[in-house]
């Protein structure tokens, strides 16, 4: 099976007209039709760059979608997974309105890859796509959708990784070949980081535990939930900052400080945590012995983040030092906004207190959508606060936008 992206630039054109029109133009108006139209405009523009035959995105401009020669570009990796997780929510909303083409695309993508996961068994980035398969299973009930996921997770439970959670990038040369040692597969390479065999970085809270907990819910097998619960709290014990009620991105940032003396808290990193906690709480049993602890840390995090929101409704790449990277940033904002909307909709966050926060964030996100439907101001793939431009976009941010939109659609009257 071919797994790498070839720049042939075949364009997938939707059956319906996807150009910007009065019906699909992004609008910051807070009503169901406007929210739906904004979501539709963004996804329709993105799908203009989708190769339906290969089930991959293709682009000809720098920093548009994914790096074509790195592990992140694997079509079963976290970049695609994050897109499809949000796309699943949109496709089901569209399907409820009689438009089934998006759901069909999701089903065909999963079917094309035989419900397989990425090649790195223990790395959450490579099984995050399992969230899509589980969501599809909820609708179609096809047993084969669960088989690869169960095989991999059973293997992990039987032989769990015992590496430490301190991030260290291995940079050494093989004594045999003389070449740099890297994770390498299907022509794609990525740095070798042993700690990523466990949930050692903030992003993993979105990529990993939601899959395990949802699988436990579907199979009614608590071994998956027990594993996720144990590993999740190991990660929290490492990355949670009790003083500021925020999460570090990973262990490399414990001692780092911004010029203003504040800790380095990466917006997208903490955004992955906010959205990940929402995904966890969606499937965690109401009577779980630790549910109150999950809810408590979620509320503390979202309360703290509300105080760091900027006047334009967005969060800057560095949460506690907005002046250090004074750029609009939509991926972290969308992930946090999803957390707020989910929390309000599910009675976890006070509606009166947090509705203004999420409404302001949604309006800011919509204002970052260009007239053609392109979502801009997305910080590129990375692990720390960096600069952003108006034309920067990525498909994982589209997924986050759609997740937020789906909850905003429920939230408004």
Description:
This protein is mainly alpha-helical and 413 residues long. It has one domain: Glycosyltransferase, CATH 1.50.10. The strands form three sheets. Strands 1-2 form a two-stranded antiparallel sheet. A hairpin with a 2-residue loop joins strand 3 and strand 4. Helix 9 packs antiparallel against helix 10. The protein is globular. The N terminus is likely disordered.
- Count of structural domains: 1
What's the total number of strands?
6
**Structural class by SSE content:** mainly alpha
Q: What is the molecular shape? A: globular
Distinct helical segment count: 13
What is Rg?
Answer: 20 Å
The description of the largest β-sheet is: 2 strands, antiparallel
Q: What are the segments in which pLDDT stays under 50 over at least 5 consecutive residues?
A: 1-24
Mean pLDDT: 90
- Give the SSE string: HEEHHHHEEHHHEEHHHHH
Instruction: Give the spatial strand order of the biggest sheet.
Output: 1-2
In what range is the share of β-strand residues? under 5%
Look at the structure and give the CATH class.
Mainly Alpha
Named at the architecture level, the CATH assignment is Alpha/alpha barrel
Tell me the helix content.
40-55%
CATH topology, by name, is Glycosyltransferase
